[in-house]
Amino acid sequence: KIDYEIDSSSVSPVTRDTYAYWSFDEGSGTKAYDYGFNDPYFGSGSAGPGRLDLILQNGPEWVPGISGTALQFDGDDDFLYSDLEQDIDNYETSTYELFFKTEAEQNQTLLGVCKYQTQYNCGTFQNHDLEIIITADGRLGFRYEAHDNPSNDLPQILSEESFNDGFWHHVAVIISNGANFGSGDRIALYADGELV
Asked: What is the chain's percent helix, strand, coil content, to nearest 5?
């Protein structure tokens, strides 16, 4: 269990190097807006506001979050997607992070990046370039296509501790120092600030 206090004096997580950032503080509606600085990646050349807004599919619900609001997924068919066909492929030097809270007792994808841009819902892990998961017994894992065997049910990086206790947790994955895609990458998974 971790305690987070976020107020107006908190430092913004968004910098000029933030490719995409969703606060999920909209509280209503069918979109979660992107506050990253990814406009140059879309050919405009300016460092404007984010363009990877996420569309809510199949009814995720707006609920109270750590600060502001969050989204609650039913664990069955709720998901978010961007209708922009933008390839997010700089996996060699990137960080993916999120807050989550669950008591679920089935395998779930917390974050997945689809291989095929035309898919609104990636479905199973075989359709993901990478994903952060939580297993039925609450362990956190990170699956990376260039690092893991797609025929394995569980990824190589998997926590020993369980996190499906109904409290808010923070998970971050850092990929660094890859000379080539999937070759020599250093991957670290952090749960609540601790290296897994």
From this structure: 5, 35, 60
- Return the amino acid letter for 146: A
Q: Where would I find the beta strands (DSSP E) of 58-181?
A: 61-64, 69-72, 79-81, 94-100, 108-114, 128-134, 139-144, 157-162, 169-176
- What residues contact residue 57 under an 8 Å CB cut-off, 6+ apart? 77, 78, 79, 80, 81, 120, 121
Instruction: Supply 179's token pair.
Output: 């000379």
Tell me how long the chain is. Answer: 196
pLDDT 10s digits, 106-147: 988 888 776 555 555 565 556 666 788 899 999 998 877 655
In this structure, what token pair is assigned to residue 158? 């998997």
Query: How do residues 30-83 score in pLDDT, each as one tens digit?
Result: 999 988 876 555 555 544 567 788 889 899 999 999 889 999 998 888 888 877
Q: How, if at all, do strands 186-191 and 69-72 pair? A: unpaired
